[in-house]
Amino acid sequence: MRFDHKHLLGIEPLRPEEITTVLDLADQYVDQNRRAQKHSDALTGLTQINMFFENSTRTQASFEIAGKRLGADVMNMAMQASSIKKGETLIDTAMTLNAMHPDLLVVRHPHSGAVDLLAQKVNCAVLNAGDGRHEHPTQALLDALTIRRAKGRLHRLNIAICGDIAHSRVARSNLILLGKMENRVRLIGPPTLVPGNFAEFGAEIYEDMDEGLKGVDVVMMLRLQKERMDGGFIPSEREYYHRYGLDAAKLAHAKDDAIVMHPGPMNRGVEIDGEIADDINRSVIQEQVEMGVAVRMAAMDLLARNLRETRAQQVMEA
Hints:
This protein is 40% helix and 14% strand. About 2% of the residues have low confidence.
């Protein structure tokens, strides 16, 4: 298994074969997580610190469960109530943490590039759990695993990403990953939420939902990120749902076996109809949650292997 990285900061640096390595190992962890005995010793003796400068329920819980199932000592730091509030800089925080000798640092931050800055200042493996509008690599990887398991492949599929593209790090990471794996990606939404520069990623842009969903294999809905909006991006939630919320009539334009995805949390009746979200024949939203734990286990396992190898090399050279 080749995964030649010290950190997981984004999808952009990953080669297609490295993406496949993560997904193949995650597949094994899916099987392990479905057994009565879910634990292994891949991270035994290592310390994992989860630093979330933004609130998150599912991502933080997923990383915590993943670390504990692999045998790590896991600590959650409530950064909203930490020294940051007292004026400590991000670099000072990094230096303080580094002195505690952690092995894995999981970081979510509201500013793009903040996680990369932290990674430059610490001697451990850093995983990006979402930074501003930049990237959310483990979300894209868990989405990829969900698609691969549902469709039997992760290449040459027609995939529609719908909704608030402009504010979504999930959309950006998915665009990069799906492009690397030779898929055809369509972005669907109002012009205020789908900037034209996203065409640079090789995506086709549609303003009309019915047209954009024609013949697609995968429909990926996105949450309206109202906390990142500082203007009138949509006329009203009611109007948005009428034009861009996924319901049975719009989904009928996709392939009969198209799957429906959503990274959560969902705004039912805004981005997606509740019946579609709960349709066991079409929706894979709960599978995405399950895949999230397995993918994060795989990512931390691979980074820990590299970390141990690097440290062993340093001991030999010393």
